[in-house]
Amino acid sequence: MSERDAIPSVRLLIDGRFVESASEQWRDIVNPATQQVLARVPFATGAELNAAVASAREAFKSWRKTPITARARVFLKYQQLIREHLKELAAILTAEQGKTLADAEGDVLRGLEVVEHAAGIGNLQLGELANNVAAGVDTYTLLQPLGVCAGITPFNFPAMIPLWMFPMAIACGNTFVLKPSELDPMVAMRLAELALEAGIPPGVLNVVHGGAEAVDRLCEHPDIKAISFVGSTRIGSHVYRRASQAGKRVQCMMGAKNHAIVLPDAHREQTLANLAGAAFGAAGQRCMAVSVAILVGEARQWLPELVAKAASLKVNAGVEPGSDLGPLISRAALERVCSLIECGVQEGAQLELDGRHPPVSDYPQGNFVGPTVFSEVTPEMSIYREEIFGPVLCVMQAATLDEAIALVNANPHGNGTALFTRSGAAARHFQEEIDVGQVGINVPIPVPVPLFSFTGSRASKLGDLGPYGKQIVQFYTQTKTVTQRWFDEGDVGGPVNTTITLK
């Protein structure tokens, strides 16, 4: 057996069984710190994807009628299994994605919060009742599952984002086909194994792998009723257009350019620490990363301390103790980030801290970029217009809070923003005037807990309803309105009038 033959292959999950793909197209899963090939992932054939959808369609017939309490118990068990395997899941995630073990555990734990929310589906999937809307007439609503739903997830949160999707969809009575990122699908497959162990029946959860062709097939498949997507603006726009034209419900969470505004009265040490963590944590590979800091008035004097804070962060492989940020996901990502840094220099921004080629002696093949800080950034520059998706912070200046708000609102994206201040009046003014979906006050990454929904806006989102929270129950269910009238046995009258008149 050759060394190549010894590399394990990632399987598909179809109808409750993990099966080897018959595909002739495969991709290596590479440890981004070492370039070691961890496994090979298949690009599922059209027949395999169709089999997964057919399995989900058949399973829906019985799963939709499963009592809501029984569905809830599955997710009570599932959250327990995830907790028991947290360290294992984090280790898999770090090996294939690169983020530090602490970040990897956070990735899993944020997804776990949604699983716990799914376990409370009995209190979430509730209709409404109006008694006696007319004489002897009641009207009520039912929230019924849609059928087969699909999810397309990105590389940067390979545990959290799948857990945003299939638990809530399945808890609502749907069945699901998941396509995780082909760059790091192994932790999603382990989560799928645990889901089956928790009691999810065959066919209710299926997993396929692939690239653009698989995405298009999911968008166009006539048996899929809804698609959830998290990823880049380019692909998300394509998914939304293609799936919508095919008559599906679609929600797409996409790119971002998140700003943090710093007022001079902010708590200095806390603000600087929060900015560094939000800009450079997870190597900047998150759609809610703070990639722009706007220093207002005298806060511009904080720039040297911000640069010093960034320079103090430790770049290393995610498995190494004390590392603050690990490598980027791939060589292509490394080249793109470095190219954008060079664009910033060429376009006239002041490079205060250059993170290219950091010394990581034990991992010379790693895709490392250290914290990078630019000042004197203007809205016309490439480093401001594009989502860099790396550990690069653009620092801008504004004379007033209103000037800073205008700068944020002029940006096409609306995923997240934050204000650092000790002024309640300034905070209230900010939250009222800012045109961004998720707002933090002294919170740099304002991703809400699952009691609420993820509410990115403008160019960062397509579709009316966000993932998890109350909105996702609406997304994964169809509202059916029933108007009913019953007669007593002794009632005598003429022909039944089937038109109800409300007076």
TrEMBL record:
Keyword entries, A-Z: NAD, Oxidoreductase
One GO biological process term: thymine catabolic process
Highest taxon, organism lineage: Bacteria
Keyword Oxidoreductase among record annotations: yes
Protein's UniProt keywords contain NAD: yes
Pfam families given in the database record: Aldedh
Enzyme class: oxidoreductase
EC number: 1.2.1.27
Aldehyde dehydrogenase domain boundaries: 18-482
GO molecular function annotation: methylmalonate-semialdehyde dehydrogenase (acylating, NAD) activity
Family in the record: Belongs to the aldehyde dehydrogenase family.
PANTHER family found in the cross-reference section: MALONATE-SEMIALDEHYDE DEHYDROGENASE, METHYLMALONATE-SEMIALDEHYDE DEHYDROGENASE [ACYLATING], MITOCHONDRIAL
Protein name, as recorded: methylmalonate-semialdehyde dehydrogenase (CoA acylating)
Source organism (scientific name): Azotobacter beijerinckii
